[in-house]
Design brief:
mainly beta, Substrate Binding Domain Of DNAk, Chain A, domain 1, 5-stranded antiparallel sheet, 1 helix, 53% strand
Length: 152
């Protein structure tokens, strides 16, 4: 049975309808975010990064990152979007990046070394965010859960 090894929550700045989780050592990322970002797919895996398309232009999303020792069960809940991809990090750490705002200060530690991961991302709050009053800043309406585990 899979065991959870770490869980941490982050606030992620979203602008221009997207954000990314990119290898913290971006020297090993052939195309750095936001280059090549195409809104549309909920989640897209590119070498050294994961690109997310949000339901709104500018807001703060809630991101929970879990690291597991094996494939975890799908988390319970009413998820509006879900995707599973593979990714590699040369540093074992990621940084969230917004399109115009650049990298956020926190590093997301997955491991102490380079590693290959399977990643499942689920999201809720997309419909509520799309209907949100544009005059009030939206914080935490769109919620992402990213589960990382080593591939079998």
């Amino acid at each position: 049975m899979a065991e959870l090894t770490s869980r941490r929550e982050y606030d992620v700045d979203v602008d221009f309808g997207g954000f990314a989780l990119q290898d913290a050592d971006d020297r090993h990322v052939p195309v750095r975010f936001p280059e090549g970002f195409r809104r549309g797919a909920f989640l897209a895996a590119l070498p050294g990064r994961l690109d997310f398309t949000s339901a709104a232009h500018t807001h703060t999303a809630a991101l929970t990152v879990e690291v597991w020792d094996a494939e975890p069960p799908l988390p319970p809940g009413d998820w509006e979007a879900t995707a599973t991809v593979g990714n590699f990090t040369s540093s074992g750490q990621l940084r969230a990046r917004s399109v115009a705002g650049g990298p956020m200060p926190d590093r997301i530690r997955l491991a102490d070394h380079s590693s290959t991961w399977s990643v499942r991302v689920v999201c809720t709050g997309r419909a509520a965010l799309a209907e949100h009053d544009k005059e009030d800043p939206a914080e935490g309406i769109e919620q992402y859960l990213a589960q990382f585990w080593p591939p079998a």
